[in-house]
Amino acid sequence: MAAGMEKLSGTFGYDTETPRAAGASSPGRVAFAEYGTGFVTIDGIEITGIPGDMFVEITDGVPQTDSSTVAIADAVTLTTRAVSTEAPIDALTLRLRYADAERLQSVALPDALELADMAGMGLTFSTRIDQMGTRAQGAGKDAGLLGLVQFTITAIERIE
Question: DSSP letter string over 90-111?
Answer without folding.
Answer: EEEEEEEEESSSSS-SSSSPPS
